[in-house]
Specification:
single chain, 297 residues, alpha+beta, 2 domains, 10 helices, 44% helix, disordered N terminus
Length: 297
């Protein structure tokens, strides 16, 4: 039976295809992930092929993330929680460790982008007086807005267009939809909810994903997406490495040159200095709203 792929490459899959039949008769049986024969929902081994049934396979059937009478596929292969991509081409859900590594790689890219933008803003809406950097309210507000926009656009555009950010490509994981929905809107919801998932240094998102059978954080649950393992081509990986290194290298080259020019343009309403960062002797200090924080080196 011909099926449409459950991926960001095709948002026009038939309505209802994202879910398996959940009627009482269907809940008593499911398909073997190896031979696709009918087995009991709580069977540990297939009587037909002898294959071991992964724990939680019946939950995947209910979520529509494994093959049923109407197969649900991602990129031409069935989503599965089995270990690794097997002979049938099944995917497994990405491990939290892999997702963390991808997150760190993406943070490195974002840090390079933030550094360039922040340096430009600080030099334009701040002052550098001898050994002290003075930041106005305008500088802090603009930096906050631009950094938030960059963070959102980086994840939204790459995940919607390619299914993965640079970090995910390097690690070998990608985003798929678990039901019929538009890729751009799904990725927008997923990335907007990083505000919630990222609370307490991403502890909220990590805790929810760790408790989820399909390792979904709050953004994935609301956007109806999941993160699965993927083997990207060598060409795409090389491009990701080049872009990753070019971003960090470009930031390292651009930031000192931007900081060498101090041409402040303060508005009359937002020209009050609210943050001072400087150094005296072996002590670095931060002064915010009349409070001073010293860091001894």
């Amino acid at each position: 039976m011909a099926t449409r792929p459950l991926s960001f490459g095709d948002a026009r899959c038939p309505a209802g295809q994202g879910y398996a039949d959940t009627s009482p008769s269907a809940r008593d049986h499911m398909e073997c992930p190896h031979c696709h024969g009918q087995i009991s929902t709580h069977a540990k081994k297939c009587k037909r092929c002898g294959g071991i049934i992964p724990a939680g396979q019946h939950l995947l059937e209910g979520l529509g993330l494994s093959e049923s009478d109407t197969p649900v596929r991602a990129g031409g292969s069935t989503l599965s929680s089995s270990s690794g991509r097997g002979k049938s081409g099944s995917y497994r859900f990405a491990r939290l460790g892999d997702r963390f590594i991808a997150f760190v790689l993406d943070v490195a890219v974002l840090f390079g982008l933030f550094a360039v933008v922040d340096a430009w803003v600080f030099m334009r809406w701040g002052r550098f007086d001898e050994s002290e950097l003075q930041l106005s309210a305008a500088a802090l507000l603009i930096v906050l807005a631009l950094n938030a926009a960059i963070l959102f656009l980086y994840g939204w555009l790459l995940e919607a267009a390619c299914g993965a950010t640079l970090g995910k490509i390097l690690v070998g994981i990608r985003i798929v939809r678990t039901r019929e929905c538009d890729a751009w809107s799904a990725c927008a919801v997923r990335n907007l909810l990083r505000i919630v998932d990222g609370l307490v240094f991403y502890l909220v998102g990590t805790a929810v994903a760790a408790c989820s059978e399909v390792r979904q954080r709050i953004g994935d649950i609301c956007a109806h997406t999941a993160v699965v393992e993927e083997k990207f081509g060598i060409g795409l990986r090389i491009c990701a490495v080049v872009l990753w290194l070019a971003t960090l290298g470009g930031a390292g080259w651009a930031v000192p040159r931007i900081c060498a020019v101090n041409n402040p343009s303060l508005s009359r309403d937002l020209n009050g200095i609210v943050l001072r960062i400087g150094r005296t002797g072996n002590t670095a200090y931060f002064r915010v709203a009349g409070y001073t924080f010293d860091i001894h080196s």
